[in-house]
Amino acid sequence: MNNRKLLLEHLEVPGIEGIDVYVKHGGYNTLEKALKKMSPEEVVEEVKKSGLRGRGGAGFPTGMKWSFLAKPEGIPRYLVCNADESEPGTFKDRFLMEKIPHLLVEAMVLSSYALGANTSYIYIRGEYMYLLEILEKAIQEAYAKGFLGKNIMGSGFDHDLVVTPGGGAYICGEETALLESLEGKRGNPRIKPPFPAVKGLWGCPTVVNNVETIAAVVSIVRDGGEAYAAIGIGKSTGTKLISACGNLVRPGVYEIELGMTVEEFIYGDDYCRGIANGKKLKACVPGGSSVPILPHYLVTKTAAGEDRLMTYESLADGGFKTGSMLGSGGFIVFDEDQCIVRNTWNFTRFYAHESCGQCSPCREGTGWMEKVLHRLETGKGQLHDIDLLADINKKIEGNTICPLGDAAAWPVAAAIHHFREEFEWHVTHPEEAQTRNYGLIQQPVVA
Amino acid sequence: MSHTTQPIRTTEPVNFSEALLGKMDRAIQQFPEGKQKSAILTLLHLAQAELGWISVPTMDKIAEILHIQAIEVYEVATFYTMFHLEPVGKYVFEVCRTGPCMLVGSDQLIEHIGQRLNIGVGETTEDGLFTLKTAECLGGCGYGPLLQCRHRFHEHLTPEKVDALIEQYRQGTIEPGAL
Ligand SMILES: Cc1cc2nc3c(=O)[nH]c(=O)nc-3n(C[C@H](O)[C@H](O)[C@H](O)COP(=O)(O)O)c2cc1C
Ligand code: SF4
Fold first, then answer.
1. Which of A86, A347, A353 faces B99 most closely, judged by CB atoms?
2. Which alpha helices (DSSP H) does A268-339 contain, by range?
């Protein structure tokens, strides 16, 4: 497969993080083209045609999101870039911002032009403080060259771009929590509606998009939405950054054309090169910790025996019973020596730690699940604990202000669904479970 | 040792250097008139980088600078995990313990560091140099196990690398990664 690179095209160019080299390789040409030859509506139209879907996890069509932005007279609008990247398994935005910071800067100005925003913000997680400094440098360079500021390239369009840090809170990746945080408050998600498109930052219409989503707009406007849509399969268009981690020979960030097989991604020479240390694949969480885990026999093939593809649709094939999700592209691979119970407990501990505490089902439920899973993991659990988990799960699901509750509940449900025999083994063999891992699942669960 | 649940000691003034105040001022200027509160997290980060931790008088001073109520700073500082609300060692090792790092050995790494420094998680060495903390996903999942110290990532760690790292910090040869 001829794998085109749109985001990381110039990754290997020495000095691409500086503005001169970036410009030499066509940088800011697309911004110039848009400002001089296109109306904001035409830019939005190209994004719609491209079929680009949000890369932050939910996969919502970006063009549609942009067209929902309210445009009342005399009220500023904002574009906010979500660089909070905290979903376990996800480290792609960091890679992009570190290697090619000007791509994001150009994309922010370009997207802001389309949305009619004269100020935009990049909210970056506090743990990426070194990246904030890289971005600030890029922003200063862009101001100096007239790509930011007043009357950019004589177009009459003014734009200011500010980058500001979070303080260590996964929940601030949720867009309304992010806006609260950007306003200088605790990161408590807001009740929706109103949606940010109507009332966002400081009560003004706001679009929140992921780093990678915004960065993709540059190549979409450069080559045209149709060219972008020609890459990929069906509603999974264009390229996607996948951050691969866990027990792989070659973990890292890869830009793939949507539609390649999972098999090639895990085992291919150009990608992860298989499972580390000659071990066997046990399971995979293909889209960040919030998506359902797949047992080895459902990773490269769907339940119907078809090749599993790296697309929104194929990864979700089979629904919660035998499928998962592309999510944020955080691709986590487990080898045969890993313990699913321990991992499920670990992830649940993460959600319990990160719950903002506003909703009782999430605040209490994640804590209970963490305790019950810890009990199971340490050989002190009972068989009915497994059903208790399912029960807590049901009480969280759908009963909370933001999707963190669901994100905590679903992976537990999926782990129990596929790996129930391993959970039960922890109860029936409590001592053995402390000394060795269960290994590969014996009995494939039939949907 | 001061503690977050202790009464506020506003009488004990805290000193921000001119350089720190200048940086804070620039951060505030980035936001529109009347929206200065948006700079609060930056101010807390800057204060912590200079003073090592966030005390109640520090929060009070930030409130004063931003023209907001002290409680607005307290509630923010206590929400976000990056702020140390108690004195910590000069070098705080925050070791990621979440799933992807666990798959590649973060549990063993945490144990190893604890043994080397002779402290448990959350504790500080007697010489006040090191504090060991665990952190949830730091965004380096493909490069684990890893830790962060003064905004610098240390990745692909092994027991040997960590031992060398501790030595380098002791010698003071590693600069902060930012701020
Ligand atoms: C708990 C939670 C955490 C999230 N974390 C992130 C994140 O770190 N980065 C991100 O881009 N989106 C994150 N999202 C999704 C955002 O709410 C939002 O949908 C996204 O920023 C929209 O951008 P997109 O349409 O470009 O994907 C998170 C959502 C939830 C519920
Ligand atoms: S679901 Fe959890 S994280 Fe989301 S608002 Fe409710 S308590 Fe907070």
1. A347
2. 312-316, 319-322
